[in-house]
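Purpose: get a first structural picture of the assembly so the mutagenesis plan has something to point at.
Setup: two entries, given in the order below. No constraints added.
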Amino acid sequence: MSKTEWRVGVAGLGTVGGGLLNFLAEAPDFAPAGGRAVVTGVSARSRSRPRPFDISNLPWFDDPVALATSPDNDIFVELIGGSDGPAKAAVEAALNAGKPVVTANKALIAEHGAELAALAEAKGVPLLFEAAVMGGTPAVKMLREAMVGDDVKSVAGILNGTCNYILSEMDSGGRSFADVLSEAQRLGYAEADPTMDVGGFDAAHKISILAALAFGCAPNYAAAEIEGIDQVALLDIQLAKDLGYKIKLIASADRSEEGVLVRVHPTLVAQNHPLAQAGGALNALFIEGIRIGRIFIQGPGAGSGPTAAAVAADIADVMTRAARPVFQRPAAVLTPFVPIDPARSTTRAYLRFLVKDEPGVIAAVSETLAGAGVSIESFLQKPVENADGVPIVLTTHAVAEAVLTAAIDQIASLPAVLDRPRLLRIART
Amino acid sequence: MSKTEWRVGVAGLGTVGGGLLNFLAEAPDFAPAGGRAVVTGVSARSRSRPRPFDISNLPWFDDPVALATSPDNDIFVELIGGSDGPAKAAVEAALNAGKPVVTANKALIAEHGAELAALAEAKGVPLLFEAAVMGGTPAVKMLREAMVGDDVKSVAGILNGTCNYILSEMDSGGRSFADVLSEAQRLGYAEADPTMDVGGFDAAHKISILAALAFGCAPNYAAAEIEGIDQVALLDIQLAKDLGYKIKLIASADRSEEGVLVRVHPTLVAQNHPLAQAGGALNALFIEGIRIGRIFIQGPGAGSGPTAAAVAADIADVMTRAARPVFQRPAAVLTPFVPIDPARSTTRAYLRFLVKDEPGVIAAVSETLAGAGVSIESFLQKPVENADGVPIVLTTHAVAEAVLTAAIDQIASLPAVLDRPRLLRIART
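Result (structure tokens, whole complex):
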């Protein structure tokens, strides 16, 4: 069965939808496999909203489900967003109608990926989501296809461009989180409600998807441990710099015999590490396999052009009629990974806290940490203008998180310690 | 047509072949699409040669062509190497027999890729070669599949691990090319005849393949401009370091409206550039597209594990029965790219030469360059022990190569200049 024209229905007409419409209008014959992609229907919340691209000649659907099931299209592209609601309903409807689906929706795949994969495989159609992670940088294809001759041990990287932009600006401009965030909102780099980004949830959706592809299991977003950047103080960025680190929001997934640990948190990364050097709104990822070793990939994680290009590449993949499971294994044998209790993992740590400016304090802190089993790697006391006390920073050697937490409790209870120590983890090199 | 067992014939039993045999013995069910890969025949130059893996239970073929056409296998894997001879004969025979072919042979694909693609597409079978470029790092899949929603403008990177190792060791150890090469040969990092690597020919094969995938044309190895690292002096590495650069063997392909320029040459790369930081035997590549922007990918470019993993990923791709052209376009419409005369390209340059230690020399050189239309960016005269004259180094702003060459001729003819200036190009940032 050869088909020269693939009729594409596009639901969601934001910047990515607009980029895709422009691209397919300019280059309908872009796909190497030789098919022609023509947009034959669009849907969005408002038909009349002003847009920088023309939709007047395209068949309009008020209801994305009606577009998804319309006999006038062969591929359904979902760019609505959101883990539930119309996006999920439309994707399910398209799959049920036996149509290939391409989506950029990380929340949907992270939270409902396994059940949607089962539906797609039952219907024998592809469900592709390259644009859901790292925009135009093909992390999904790499893990789903290029790494199958290896066993991936870990993936770790910078998956949220908004957070990376904010942290980079705080670092280079010496400005507070709140300052940079409000500027980013003014410039359109951050949403009016920035919670999904700065709270770490967007990065957690993405790393949950990558973990599933890397380890051959179902996404398990509920098991992700998530800490955003909204509590990152400028002081920590500056002190980390003095110690030779940058603070980045790192999303990571590590597999061991016991299970999988998926987490997102602000992390100290050594300044000469490639992840520390990915500035601005870049995304970057390390993939480590037992045979291949470490692969690093970096590129733009968002934006109309890159993300639309990723959607287009998925449309081209649909045209190859490749038959493969949605994740690494058929949905029928896909199980959620077993989460590891983070308290059982080990980490190097950065601790910052205020102490009274009096003799014996450092000795008391050092003894407390030693007694708790935490080994100090470096100690930094900086003369900072602070009437409330003297800030102390220390870094530790690798230690079990449960031990670390207990030690922090003990330090916080010392009379000379004025606040609860701020904990940031330090990335492995 | 569903097939649960894919019988694999493997020709060439070096380190990659051994890695593949071990992997398929351990994990025959690795492929997500669900097929089982079983080695059902092997071929190599000598059956009795001692090997660190067991082939005694595998059907042996003296002639790789006989293995390629044997009715007892479904996929032919070519790991023999070489652009012609038995490798080409066996690949042609397998394709003619209607069998999918997976190869790691960059010389074969760079020099005969278009005709082999035509044969594969006429027979309706895939011809895959992920392992031919960057070993386990999936540059081929990225350009062939993930970038099809974009127009790639340029690819540039480090594609030969042996050269990168030698240059890195010269830099870190302050040792000469000859010293490091002989050590690398002793350690098995370089071949007894190192010409393919250090002469830049291996990198040229690889960039010719990437250029074809990036720009939708046939490989045109004959048009590549090639300079190796065998003339890189330790002095240049040290002077480049003083100027803030590392010297790397950069393979690049640039597309413009006039055509394509493919070249390999030792290049100064700014020390904070990701390509400068890819040390040891790493490979690294920038891909720049008009929509996606710049993507960077880095990983191991050789070795048994990574390369065998790339071959295995291609075998898994065969099992998906994806139907796509071998390069970016069907072989029927694939034409070799039009090479651009390098003299018409522009570059920033590093020039190093010896001058007599007498007044007025720098003025004479500066005036000569200014008269020729070359603008100097920086000038460095280092006190180096050298009875024969004083080494002078300068870097230029971007200038047409033809202008640069004419200027070098003029400088060489100045009475105070004692040798022909050594030209190295400086990478764009």
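The mean pLDDT of chain A is 94.
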